[in-house]
Specification:
Elements: H1 2-34, E1 50-58, E2 61-68, E3 77-81, H2 92-100, E4 104-108, H3 125-140, E5 148-153, H4 155-164, E6 170-176, H5 182-194, H6 203-217, H7 226-229, E7 236-242, H8 250-259, E8 264-269, H9 283-293
Parallel strand pairs: 3-4, 3-5, 5-6, 6-7, 7-8
Antiparallel strand pairs: 1-2, 2-4
Length: 295
């Protein structure tokens, strides 16, 4: 009888411990999904070569952007969007390169990143609306020179595609390593973080955590779907992906490309991991050709 009681106590403690671990894992997963990670670039001093600092009032946030001016009359406008956890500081080289080639270039901080306020990640759902307000302000200030191009990487690529589906002013898009949808990319990220252990995680558990993140962040997770809105795009779109991308499998970018109905181009590279896809050999040349060819 004593042994039976001990066994029951041990079993009960084991169940409670397992429940506590599972609950803790759920909380951590939701936090990782929805809470903005500390990003570099907060309180960054504007460099001497920018024309203007823009502050855009958005619902629940204030978004900051820097404008770089070309020499002479702008041949168009290029807005550069950074990835998750980064800021406009990570877009400076790209923005300056576009300005040197004659474009008015804009580098922004997505909400919750850099100098922009906002608490939650929405995977392009709210950022696309913020971007439209940014372009509205450029237009109101006489800074929107056509054609308008959006160049984004990863999180920024997903935002570019979702924004392009909302605004007919977008003429061209360059999306480097976009995910197909939030529900499809989270399991891929989980596999990157946890390896084969991720195969043991039920899909229903993952979907529930995504739903919780959407509730906390105030967005519909099913709207975080570049693949879903791709058929609505009128902008000419270049999709860049790498076979060696360990975070966003290139098949996800390929799915976005397959859903496009407007002018499109696919550029696949080998060997580049996620954070270096944009710097892989041939990518910047492909971006330049795409932007200039559709001018």
């Amino acid at each position: 009888q004593c042994m039976g009681r001990v066994t029951w106590i041990v079993l009960s403690l084991g169940i409670l411990s397992a429940w506590a671990c599972w609950h803790s894992a759920s909380s951590v997963a939701v936090s990782m999904l929805v809470n903005v990670r500390p990003a570099r670039g907060a309180n960054a001093a504007p460099p001497a070569d920018i024309r203007e600092v823009l502050t855009i009032p958005c619902p629940g946030a204030s978004v900051r952007a820097w404008v770089f001016e070309p020499r002479g009359t702008p041949r168009g406008t290029v807005v550069v969007l950074h990835g998750i956890g980064d800021s406009k500081l990570g877009s400076l080289n790209s923005a300056r390169a576009h300005a040197a080639r004659g474009y008015r270039a804009v580098a922004w901080d997505s909400r919750g990143h850099g100098d922009s306020s906002g608490r939650f990640l929405t995977y392009g759902v709210q950022a696309a609306q913020d971007l439209r307000l940014l372009v509205d302000q450029l237009e109101q200030r006489g800074l929107l020179a056509a054609p308008l191009a959006i160049v984004g990487s990863s999180y920024g690529a997903a935002t570019a595609i979702q924004y392009g589906a909302l605004d007919a002013r977008v003429d061209r898009i360059v999306a480097i390593s976009p995910f197909a949808s939030l529900r499809e990319v989270v399991p891929a990220y989980l596999h990157w973080i946890a390896g084969r252990i991720a195969l043991l995680v039920p899909a229903a558990w993952t979907d529930a955590r995504i739903d919780e993140a959407g509730h906390i962040g105030g967005f519909d997770p099913d709207r975080a779907c570049p693949r879903c809105v791709a058929p609505k795009l009128k902008a000419a779109t270049l999709i860049v992906a790498s076979r060696a991308d360990e975070r966003i499998p290139f098949e996800q970018s390929q799915a976005v490309y397959a859903a496009l109905t407007a002018r499109r181009e696919w550029h696949l590279v080998d060997g580049a991991q996620h954070v270096s896809v944009g710097d892989a050999p041939g990518v910047q040349a492909a971006v330049v050709r795409w932007l200039d060819a559709t001018h």
